Every structure is written in C-alpha cells, then in structure tokens.
Amino acid sequence: MSRIISIIVTIIVLAGMAGMAFFTVQVLKPEPEQAEEKFAGLSVFAEQVTRADLDFKVTAQGEVRPQREIVVAPQIAGRIAYVSPDFIDGGFIRRGQVLVRLEGADYELAVVRAQSGVASAEQRLAREEAEAEIAQQDLINLGITDSSPLARREPQLAEARAALESAKAQLADAELALRRTAVVAPFDGRVREENVDVGQFASPGQSLGRVFATDIVEVALPITDDELGQLGLPLAFAETSQNPGPEVVFTASVAGEPRQWTGRVTRSSAAVNAQTRLINVIAELNDPYGAGSDNGAPMAPGLFVTASIAGTKIEDLLVAPRSAIRGGNNIFIGDPEEGALRIYEVDLVYSSTEGAWFRSPDVAVGDLAITSPIRGSNDGMSITILQRMEDGSIKNHNDEAASDSNDDDTTGMADTSPNVVASTSDGG
Predict the structure, then answer these.
(1) Mean pLDDT across 200-217
(2) Is the pLDDT of residue 177 over 80?
(3) Per-residue pLDDT tens for 100-155?
(4) Do 241 and 252 sit in the same domain of this protein?
C-alpha cells in the first residue's frame, strides 16, 4: 500500500514540475512582433494627367467637284466643219479658244442678204426724206397751214425709218448667227468628255461634250451641328476679307502615293439636310492643277478626299485618357500613398478617342487617372496602382510610395533617436 502511495506522489510531483516548467516557458518567451500588413487592393492601370491646349479638328469626307462645269452645245444648227485637237477627253483648253466650228456658208449668205436689205431700206428712207421735203415746200408755197400728216408724208417717212431699223436688226441677227458657228471655251479648263466629230450634224442645244474650269475646285463636307460649333462657324456662313474661313487640309491617295493639299472653307449651307440632319460646309482649293497641286499631283474633280478642318482653340486644360472619365463627368484618380481610389467631379469640355479635356480644382498635373474598368467602385476603396511604361515595364506606384515613406521614416529615426533604435535591439 505504501508503495502505491509513493508512486502516486511521485507522479503528482513530476506533473507539477512539468506544469511549472510550461508556465515558466510561456511567461518568459518573447512576444512575436506584429507586422502591420495592408490589404493589397484591386490592381488597376493608370496614366498621368497632363495639361495641354485643345485644338479642335473636324474630319469629314467628300468628293472633289469643279466650281464651274458646263455642257458644250451650239446655239445654231449646222454640220461640224472643225474640231479643236485640244477638245478631247482630258485636254487642256484656254478661254476664247475655238472648240468646234460649224459650216458657215449658209450664215454668210444670210449676212449678205441682210446687208442688201439694209441698203434697200436706206435707199427708201432717203427717197422718203426727199419727198417729205418737197411736200413740205409745196404746202408752204400754197399757203396751206393746216395740212394733214399724210400730206406732209410723215407716216411714209416713219415707215421707211422703221424698215431700216428692221433691216439692220436682221443684219445683226445674221452676223450673230455667223459668229455662233464657232463654239468657244468660256474659261481656262479641261475637257471631261467629248462626243463630236467632223461631219456630224449638230442641233441647237445638242451636247458636244463637257468642260470644267481649273481655277477653283470645291468639296462639300457634311458635318454635324456640334462640329459646326467646334469650327466657330454660324449657319449660312460666307467668308469675307475680314472674316476668312478656317484652313482645310485635304488628303487622298493618288497613283498609290499619299497626297496633301491645303485649302479653306469659304461658305456653308443655308439649311440643314432633312434626310441626314447634317450641314454642308464648302471648302475650296485654288489652282488645283498649278500652284495648288502637291508636287504636280492635282486635286482632280471626282477624287474622294478626307478633309481635316482647323477649329477653335481652348487653352490650358487638363487631359486624361477618355476611359478615366466615368458616368459622364466623374474621373477616377489613384492615390498611391493611401492605395485608395478617389472620385472627383470634373467640368468635361471635350472627349474623343485621343483623350478627355476637362477642368477641375481637385485634379492636378501628374495625378494618376485610372483607365482600368472597376466594378462596384466607391471613393476610398483599396487599389494597387500600376502604370505601363514606354519600355514595356510595369511600375507599381503603391510600392514606390511605400518605399519612399519607409526611407523617410528610417532617415528620420536615425537622425533623431539613435539610442532608441539601439535600445530596441538590445531588448529583442
């Protein structure tokens, strides 16, 4: 019995010693340092906000057309006797140049007949004038003072004068018809098409071809009402020397090479197109085959061109990627020091694929505008701000801000409390 009791006592003593040892270890062991880990929020990409002027550029497309183009047609009938060698498709013509000439024999004969009629009318008028003088003298000799106009031969004299005027008019008409046997170019230009040959009979008004002037070409450019405002132009605009139109740069591919011409807007339509709800502005280019050409390449009629029109200018605006603007007028800005999202309301001036121009007292140049989509966004949410650099590398602004903060803290402690640092090390 005593043996059992001694065994139990021994076990109790050993258990107590083990418990005391465990307690001692727990009390004396150093507490682990608690590292404050911040939750890494949603990773998003950002770009820096910049400042720039907003130069409006309106882009439109249209077909080049000559300002003047006419159908070449005779005013009289006749057989074609001559066609100018320049009157061919693509030919250059000069103002006053004879393009087509009709046979003029019939019209020359008509002139001769009209000249004969004038001579006869002049002879008749001279005879009537002489007879009127004789009649007037006879009345005076007879002492007749109340003679009739017929006795004084006034109606006969008036008829002779009218006959002369009619004969002169017939002569002028015959000479005009003779001159019209020559169809001349009314301006310097080029031939678009020609459908006439020698020996062909032409009727008055019949189309012999088409020619257009080469002094000015124009392009009708359809734009929206907002774009018209960006150009600073009113509806039914017409340029003057005091108010010239904006500059236009035309571009197109000619013979496989990109070409460029510079013109200007001279006027706009007076009404809005009822079908498209667009407004046409008319841009012109002077001397497209000469000084206005691009190294000899003309902006020829029929060419389809893209036009870039210089608009108004707004200075000193903030610029961010368009994807940073959310909800119409809110911008998402990343705060790398706090690792948080900030949402500010801005005055959005203009937005396009090139960016968003805005004003804001809360946003400054260099701020990080968030471009990544964020669901369930709210001001202050945790984010990790990344930026893709020009060399393709990814920059983590949160880590950089934390590194700068740690460097500042370490520098401050080393400068002001070196003893504290040493004390802490000893205590560890």
Answers:
(1) 93
(2) yes
(3) 999 999 999 999 999 999 999 889 888 888 887 777 776 777 777 677 777 677 78
(4) yes
Q: Do residues 97 and 108 share a domain? A: no
Q: What is the CATH number of the domain that holds 91?
A: 2.40.50.100
Q: Give CA angle at 137 (132, 138), nearest 5°.
A: 100
For residue 420, pLDDT beyond 60: no
Identify whether the C-beta of residue 400 lies closer than 8 Å to the C-beta of residue 391: no
The span from the CA of 399 to the CA of 402, in Å, is 5
CA atoms within 13 A on the CB side of 391: 3
Please report which confidence band the pLDDT of residue 192 belongs to, taking 50, 70 and 90 as the band edges: very high
pLDDT tens string 309-337: 998 888 999 999 999 999 888 999 999 88
Residue 20 lies in a domain: no
Mean pLDDT of 68-95: 93
> b/e for 121-154, b at 16 or more Cβ within 10 A?
beebbeebeeebeebeeeeeeeeeeeeeeeebbe
Among 124-133, 194-203, 366-375, whose mean pLDDT is lowest? Answer: 124-133
In a domain, 355, yes or no: yes
CATH number at residue 390: 2.40.420.20
Residue type, position 171, single letter: L
88 and 193 co-located in one domain: yes
Helices 105-142 and 154-179, packing angle to 10 deg: 170
Per the structure, the complete domain to which residue 203 belongs is given by 77-102+181-211
Q: Kindly report which listed range (146-160, 244-258, 385-399) carries the lowest average pLDDT score.
A: 146-160
